[in-house]
Amino acid sequence: MTRSAPSATAAPEAEPTAPAARLVAQRGLFRGPDPVCPDELYTTIVSGAAERERTRITVQPFSAVSTDTYFGRFPASHWQRWTVVTEVTVELVVSGSAKIALVASDFRGETRPEAATDVRGGTDQLVTLTAKLDKFLDGGFLWVEIDTEDTGLAVDRLVWTVAAPETYRPTSVVICTFNRADDCTRTLGALAGDEAALEVLDAVYVVDQGTDTVQSRPQFNDLDNALGGRLRYLRQPNLGGAGGFGRGMYEVTKSGESNILLMDDDVLCEPEIAVRLSAFANRTQRPTLVGGQMLRLLHPTRLIASAEYADFNQLIPGQVVHNGLDDVDLLEPALDGNGEPTGQPVRGDRRVEADYNAWWSCLIPNEVARELGLPLPVFFQWDDVEYGYRARSRGYNTVTLPGAGLWHADFDWKDGDKWNEYFAVRNAMIVATLHSAFPPKQMARVITSRVARALLGMQYGFAVTMIKAAEDFLEGPRALHDGGQQAAADIRKLRAEYADTVAHPIGKLGELGLGSVPLIQAAPAPKSPRLVLLKRLAHLATGRSTHPVGAVPSVDSAWWHVSQFDKVVVTDAAQDAVRVRTRDKATTIELAKRVAQVARRIIAEGPRLQEEYRAAVPALTDKDNWERLYGLR
């Protein structure tokens, strides 16, 4: 059933409009939207003192500040490479006295002055500094530095502007949510509380697929009013991220011309991301997917990647491109070629190119969505990868824009042994058939290797999850008929049959007779994993083990260590529970035979399945198929 909030009766989405002569490409912000956001990601106090507010900074006498920070820099290289813009202007409204400089870096990380001016006793004085975007092709940023002497300076406004397009296309945000009503409410509140972000937004779609609904929250009506008639609230059965984001894409392309900004519900939202992605998308040379970057919510100074690609041969998404930043602390000094600190912040000055951008935040141009259709109905996992590579196959690039970021839950604090691994494996294989050579023997090796390691680690539920995923992949495109609802229910039921999938509170171990077990840490990782694998298999066959029982920290839970136990208590990655794994030779043999059969089928049937999946994409991604899944026809 589809139900709209009262705002759904508001005026229809706006058509592209004629903007002012200058387009705000990004704002200069001096603090984050939430106290947990580190101020140093926005502006740096080089010396002296300054008082930072969200859009205002007061620099005390004999002080220096710089916006050479993650959110403070302007990504000049990306603008030169991908847009029609040839110069950028930074505009400041200031009061007081100071030297204000516009500084650039190049792809080597070396800096140079672009422009500078002295302000003496100004009152609400407009200062403009301009830089040509002609020396940044391989990399580089721009930023502002302010130095005061005996008189301080207050900056009341700082914006980076570029020439505006003839017509400006607004953006519609699409948030897919499932039983994260409080998280989604906070995200809506962040957008509603930022006037500049609201100015670029035409609509905010919330596709609620849960039972604990966003609409049930007491602040829902206030948020609806604060969003100024932009909220479109939709309810539907749980069709995963693909179904939720796809519904928003469907609604936007059906009713208007706005671009589509997909955004997760469980983020700490920096509303500025809407401003930066929207501006960039309006100035690209041709329609381009523009993605935001992910900062780690539990470690808010860490960026997970500059840009990413998928390794189809290993069925692994989220690989960092060569020369890209890879899980770095943005406030630690960068290292030189010898591993020594340079004294300069981590910038990632060299421009790198993404193959796709994850849907924690990714803007898709309206015309791209119309041409490509909707996501593949794979429920969730790899839907964003597939769409990005499908766009590439049609000539539409993806740009991951530096400085357009938000905070998302850390992936390595989520335990991998969960039901959603079914979709991670099945969908990876499906997407690999569509966008890679899909060598059957290599695919069989990957699945067999993963299952073997799970069996050695006594993760029988995890092993059967992956086996079931591969088996359902072998069913061909008909496995996607219902959008994944039955598969999600089936895999949960299947996993419940295996005791090692149960997460136990640490206080309950006494009831299992495991209240006191020795903590046994791992030795260094083996230099020859394949030889160790063969050795562990031999021990399994002969019933040998090193430890009868023990406890193992999450960080030490690799298969080559856990496989030395008869029974082991392993801490979950989330650090809130443990799993108990017990050696079961009969189950190991049963599942080993099953994965061997799967491997043989992948090798034999892989080429045929690749043809079938590729042939099925147009029908699977067509709006008629999704209307059926949404119950709209």
TrEMBL record:
Pathway: Cell wall biogenesis; cell wall polysaccharide biosynthesis. GO terms for molecular function: glycosyltransferase activity. Residues 50-161 form the Galactofuranosyltransferase GlfT2 N-terminal domain. Keywords: Glycosyltransferase, Transferase. It comes from the Bacteria. InterPro entries: GlfT2_C, GlfT2_N, Nucleotide-diphossugar_trans. Residues 451-630 form the Galactofuranosyltransferase-2 C-terminal domain. Signal peptide: none annotated. The keyword Transferase applies. Belongs to the glycosyltransferase 2 family. This is Galactofuranosylgalactofuranosylrhamnosyl-N-acetylglucosaminyl-diphospho-decaprenol beta-1,5/1,6-galactofuranosyltransferase.
